[in-house]
């Protein structure tokens, strides 16, 4: 089993909704946490909240909603002090993939896991419709 933690760091309740949807599909995910930047919350308060669950001895993936937004910038700053990889543009497919990799016996480096998760998220973004003719 692979040991890494996952934090979903988003504006508003988006991260909590993604976590609930993911757990509906893959079951409970004890090493995954959602943290929300709520209206009126300072970046410093958000950073402190994230720091309380980071462990310098455990690699962590931080998923954020928007690259360059406050959650993304905080994840970037924390990656200077902690073993963190940041992935922006979180979607349900990449979160499910990350949770399934946590339970996998597949041996890869942490960076290979990150690339695999990134690719899985991109592959699920499709444009489609039903043509009636």
From TrEMBL:
<dbReference type="GO" id="GO:0016301">
    <property type="term" value="F:kinase activity"/>
</dbReference>
<dbReference type="InterPro" id="IPR051471">
    <property type="entry name" value="Bacterial_PTS_sugar_comp"/>
</dbReference>
<keyword id="KW-0813">Transport</keyword>
<dbReference type="GO" id="GO:0005737">
    <property type="term" value="C:cytoplasm"/>
</dbReference>
<keyword id="KW-0762">Sugar transport</keyword>
<dbReference type="InterPro" id="IPR004701">
    <property type="entry name" value="PTS_EIIA_man-typ"/>
</dbReference>
<keyword id="KW-0963">Cytoplasm</keyword>
<dbReference type="GO" id="GO:0009401">
    <property type="term" value="P:phosphoenolpyruvate-dependent sugar phosphotransferase system"/>
</dbReference>
<dbReference type="InterPro" id="IPR036662">
    <property type="entry name" value="PTS_EIIA_man-typ_sf"/>
</dbReference>
<feature type="domain" description="PTS EIIA type-4">
    <location>
        <begin position="3"/>
        <end position="125"/>
    </location>
</feature>
<keyword id="KW-0808">Transferase</keyword>
<keyword id="KW-0598">Phosphotransferase system</keyword>
<protein>
    <submittedName>
        <fullName>PTS system protein</fullName>
    </submittedName>
</protein>
<dbReference type="InterPro" id="IPR033887">
    <property type="entry name" value="PTS_IIA_man"/>
</dbReference>
<dbReference type="GO" id="GO:0016020">
    <property type="term" value="C:membrane"/>
</dbReference>
<keyword id="KW-0418">Kinase</keyword>
<dbReference type="Pfam" id="PF03610">
    <property type="entry name" value="EIIA-man"/>
</dbReference>
């Amino acid at each position: 089993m692979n040991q890494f933690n996952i934090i979903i760091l988003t504006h508003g309740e988006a991260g909590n909704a993604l976590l609930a949807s993911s757990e509906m599909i893959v079951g409970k995910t004890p090493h995954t946490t959602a943290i929300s930047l709520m209206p009126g919350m300072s970046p410093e308060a958000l950073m402190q909240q994230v720091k309380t669950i980071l462990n310098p001895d455990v690699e962590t993936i931080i998923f954020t909603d928007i690259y360059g937004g406050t959650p993304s910038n905080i994840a970037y700053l924390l990656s200077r002090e902690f073993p963190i990889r940041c992935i922006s543009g979180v979607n349900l497919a990449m979160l499910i993939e990350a949770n399934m990799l946590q339970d996998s016996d597949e041996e890869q480096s942490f960076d290979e896991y990150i690339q695999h998760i990134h690719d899985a998220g991109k592959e699920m973004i499709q444009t489609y419709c039903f043509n009636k003719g």
